[in-house]
Amino acid sequence: MNSQLPSYLHDEQVGPWAMYLEQIERVRPHLGRLATWIDTLRHPKRCLIVDVPVRMDDGSLRHFEGYRVQHNASRGPGKGGVRYHPQVTLPEVMALAGWMTVKNAAINLPYGGAKGGIRIDPGQLSLAELERLTRRYTSEIGIVIGPDRDIPAPDVNTNEQVMAWMMDTYSINVGATSPGVVTGKPVSMGGSLGRRDATGRGCFIIARCAMEKLGLQMEGARVAIQGFGNVGNAAARIFHAHGAQIVAVQDVAGTLYNPRGIDPVALGEFLATGASLLDYPYAERVANDEFWGLDCDVMLPAALENQITTANAGAIRARLIVEGANGPTTPQAEDILLANGATVLPDVLANAGGVTVSYFEWVQNASSYFWTEQDINERLDRALADAFRGIWQVSVDRKLPLRTAAFVVACSRVLEARALRGVYP
Ligand code: GLU
C-alpha cells in the first residue's frame, strides 16, 4: 500500500488519480513559497459515495453506485460535470474533480473543483429508468450541491435532459425553483445559448491560439478526432467551418479515414439516425490501432482518459495535440510527445470552454438576465485567449511544457487563496 494514498484507495485501483498526483508533483518545484500548501491539492476536500436504488421497468430493484467529489473550494463553490459510465470509480471521479480545480483556476473562474458520476452503462436503461436514476442520484447528493455550494453539469453520457431532471429534483426538494444548481440545462429553462458547443468551440479557440504561435495554418490543417460525442462533434464542425480538414474520426464502433476530408455535419446527421460510424460511406475503415499513426497535423482526443500511452505516443505524427477529453495523455506518453517536438495543449486549458460557458450560464441565472449567443461566443473567445496567452508566457519564460505552465498558473491561484484563508480552527 502506497502511504501517500488515502486509506480508502488501493494501489491497484488508483489509475487516473495517480496520474493527477504525478502532474501535481511536476508543478511542485515551480510554486515558490506556495509549495508548502501543495498537499491541499493531494487531498480531496470531500468524497460522497451514494447508493442509488432504481425501480426498473420490469419491477425489479437494482442498486447503482454514485459519487460526488468536491476536490477543492478555496476559490469558490465546487463545479464540474456528472458522468454515467460503466467504468466510473471513486479514484477516477477524484482525478476528474482535481482536474476541475486546476481547470477552473487556469481560466480564473471563481470556482473550486468537483465531479460526480454513476457506475452504469446508460445505454442499457430505458428513458424512464434513466430519469429515475438521475432523480434519485440528485436527491442523494442534494446534501452537498446547491448554487452556492457545488454546481453539476453534463459530462460523458449526460446531457441537457439529465440536467433538466437534476434541476427539477433539486428544486422540488428545496421548495424553490433553483436554475443555478446545474449548468448545461436546456435553453428553454434557463440554460445558456452557446453552451452545447462550448467545449468543442474552446478546443478550436485554444488550437487556433497555439497555431498562431507555432506558425501553423488553420486553412487545410488535417485534424484527427477520437470521440464524436458532445466535444468531438462540435470541435469537428467548428474546425471544418474555419477551413481545417477532418481526416479521421474514431468512436466506439471503429475508425474512419479520408485524406481528402470527412464532412462532420454530414457524418453527424448520419450518426443521428442511429447508424454505426463504420457504415458511413464517404471514408475508408482502418484498424483502431492505426488511428494514432495517421498522417495529420492536429490530433484531438475527445473521448476518455488514458488513451495516449507509451504504447502509441511514439507513433503520433501530429504537431499539435488538443486534449478535448480529460486526462487522455499519461505523463510518460506526454514526455515522448514533447521529445518528438509535438505541442500538447493540456485538458485544463483545451477543454475549458464548457465550464467557461457554464460559468456564464450560472451568472445569467443569478441575475435572471440572458445574453445573446454572439455575446457568449465573444466572451468565451476572450476568456480562453487571455488564459492561453498567460500560460504560454509562463511556458516560454520558465521553459516549461504547457501543462506544467497551466498547473503553475492555476495552482498558484488556488494555493494563494488557501494560504490567505488559512486553516480552521
Ligand atoms: N464536464 C465538463 C468538463 O469536464 C464541463 C463541466 C462544467 O461545465 O461544470 O469540463
List how many beta strands DSSP finds. Answer: 12
Task: Please state the CA-atom Rg, rounded to the nearest Å.
Answer: 21 Å
CATH architecture of the domain at 198-350: 3-Layer(aba) Sandwich
CATH class of the domain at 198-350: Alpha Beta
The CATH topology of the domain at 198-350 is: Rossmann fold
Strand content: 15-25%
Topology:
Blueprint: H1 16-27, E1 46-55, E2 61-72, E3 78-85, H2 90-106, E4 113-119, H3 127-141, E5 150-154, H4 160-174, H5 198-214, E6 222-226, H6 230-241, E7 245-251, E8 254-257, H7 264-272, E9 284-286, E10 298-301, E11 320-322, H8 331-339, E12 343-345, H9 347-350, H10 353-367, H11 373-398, H12 402-421
Parallel strand pairs: 3-4, 3-5, 6-7, 6-10, 10-11, 11-12
Antiparallel strand pairs: 1-2, 2-4, 7-8, 8-9
Helix pairs in contact: 1-2, 1-12, 2-12, 3-4, 5-6, 5-10, 5-11, 10-11, 11-12
Glutamic acid binds at residues 79-81, 153, 155, 183-184, 326, 351, 354-355, 358.
